[in-house]
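Request: Mind sharing a record?
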Amino acid sequence: MSRTHSPDPAATAGTPAPPDGLHPLPGGLGWTVDDRSLALRLLADQRLGVLEPGPVMAHLAAKVPADVRPLVEDITAFAEKVMLQTGQDRHQVLRKAFGGFFDADAIAAVTPGMRADARDVAGRFAAAGGGEFMTAVAFPYAIRVGARLIGFTDDEYRRLHKLSQRLALVAYAARLDDPAEAVRAGHAALVRVRGIVAAARASAPPSSVLGAWHAGTVPLPDADIEANAVMLVQASLETVAGMLGNTAARLLRAPGALADPERREAVLDDALRAEPPLKTLERVVLEPVVLDGQEFRAGQIVSVRIAEANRLDGDAVAGRALFSFGWGAYRCLGARLARHQALELFGALHEAAPDAAVAEPETETERVRHIRFDMPRRLPVVCSPPRRDAAALTRALTEALEEDDVDRRLTSLEHEVTQVVLKENGVLVPGELRGPETIREWVTWAVPAGG
C-alpha cells in the first residue's frame, strides 16, 4: 500500500522532506509515525524515553498559590513512581519487581480463577439470551480479572479507576482558568486512593499484588508498590475491554469461528493488528537522533500510530510482530496475560452460548470517539438461552437440601443453598429476584426463564 502526505512547506524552502511515513506535528512539537520500519527503530532506540511528570508538574506549581504547591509536590511524588512514567533505569527495576505476577507460572496459577470468572460472565450473558457485549461482558470481565490479579474487590477496582482518572486530570490543570482548584480536587482523589489501597492491602489474597505486598515479598518501597498497584488498575480496563470488544465484533460475525480454538486465536490477532485498543504510543526524544536523514531533536514528541505500524504491507520488518502491546523497554508487562484472558473468555462464551452472534452483522459497529482508545461503543449480541432440565434441577435441589417435599417453604439458609446449587447447574439468579419459596417454584422459575 502506498502512502502519501501533503508537501511540507519547509521542504519547498530547501529543507528535505521527511521520510515516507513520518509526519510533523504543528509548531515543531514532534512527529507522528505510521511506517513499520521507522516505528520499530524509534521505539527500540534508548535515546527515546517516556514523558516524565516532573517538568509538567513544575510548570503547574509555578501557576498555583504557595499553599497549593505542597499538594502538587505530593501528586508529583506519586506520579514519578509509576513505571510507565519513569526513566529507563528505574523502569527496569520496577518491571523486574512486578514481572513475577505476569510470567508463565503466574498465568498458570491464575488461570483457574480466570476461567471461573469467564464462565460466570459468559454464563450470565447466555442466560439472558445475549445483550450489549461491552457493558455485559467486556468491561465486567476485565474488571473481575484485573481486580483479582491486584487484590481488590470489583467495587474497589471501579472506585479506584474513577479516582485515578480524576487524579490524572491534574496533568492538564495548568491550562485551566483555576488550576489550584483542579489540584485540590486531584489531591483529594489521591487521598481517597491511598485509603482504598491501604484497606484492601490488609485483606488481599496472598497470591495477588496487594497480598504479596502485605506479606513483604515485593522488593520495593511501599510508595512504589502503592503507585503501581493503581497504575495496574488504569492499565487493565479500557485496553483489555477494548481488545475483547474489537475481537468479538469480528469473531461473532464469522460463522463457525467461535467453535474453533485456532480461529479464535487468529481472529484475536487480526483484531489486535487492525484495531488495537490503544491508538498511539508516545515517546519523547531524550537526545538528538538521526534516522533516514531526518533529525529528531531533544524534547520532541514521537507518536506512533499503532494500527498503521502494525500493517505488514509485504514488509518483513520484525516478522508478524504486533505493536499493540508496545515495543522496546516499555512494552506492556501484561501482554501475555491479556491474550490468555481473551482466549479464556471466548472459550467460555462458546461453551455457554455456541450460537452467539452479532445482532446486526451487516451494520457497521458503532465505535467510541476517543483520542486514545479504539473499541466498540455498542455491540449487541444475540444467542439462544440454555435449556434447563426440570427433573435434573429438582433432583439436584432435593439432594442438596435433603428434602423430598418440593412444596415446603424453604428457610432463608435453604434459599442461599438453592441459589448455589442453581449456579452450579448453570442457572444464575439475579440479586433482585423475589418470589420462589419452594423447590417446585424455584424449578418452575429456572426452566422457562433460563436463569
User: Anything to note?
Assistant: The first helix runs from residue 9 to 12. The first strand starts at residue 22 and ends at 24. Confidence is low (pLDDT under 50) at residues 1-12.
